[in-house]
């Protein structure tokens, strides 16, 4: 209601996968506010995500285009040991338990630096500390979203284009294409803020059941 266009989410608690089933089923924020980009820390339990169920009429890959989950990387761009990962699970039909390839969590996932991150102190502590965690990685992605929306204000009302740009310009890590550890790969602010074209999108992974690469073009950020 106050004009928010991106939000960063990092919550403690008993959920083994920080952006997990309870958050999804009872808040459903991303589907309720489709013009806002929601960035979630993947949490630090050294686990792969388990399948979640969804209403039979819902296709998360179509309805959660504004949803990004972030894993944490070492300075070497390898997944840090504590970071959760998407694995090969995803959203499944609640009645048939069918889990479509295109709805796997890895297609919602980015990776970002998550160790040796300079962070402000808590509450009344005015110091700064080097710290780590997916909670340190997610705000970097949220910052890239804010950069895009600040430079091209039209993107504030088109969350799916924002995520398409960020996914499509990520630096591939691990297995070629979108994989079960790094998702789309390392978020790259420099690529996301540059004119888009063959330089960055020629090797972009295609989504299952889709005949083309992500379509990040907004007209404003194309040569």
Task: Give an account of the 3D structure.
22% of the residues lie in helices and 16% in strands. It is an alpha/beta fold and 223 residues long. The protein has a 4-stranded parallel β-sheet with strand order 1-2-4-6. Strand 7 (117-120) and strand 8 (128-131) form a beta hairpin. The longest helix has 18 residues, at 134-151.
Brief summary:
With 223 residues, the chain is an alpha/beta fold.
Q: How many H/I helical runs?
A: 7
State the strand order across the main sheet.
1-2-4-6
Helix content: 10-25%
Number of strands: 8
Mean pLDDT: 79
Which band does the percent of strand residues land in? 15-25%
Main sheet characteristics: 4 strands, parallel
**What order do the SSEs take from the amino end to the carboxyl end, as H and E?**
EHHEEHEEEEEHHHH
Structural class: alpha/beta
Rg from C-alpha positions? 17 Å
Q: What global shape is seen? A: globular
Low-confidence parts: 210-223
- Rounded to the nearest angstrom, the distance between the terminal CA atoms is 34 Å
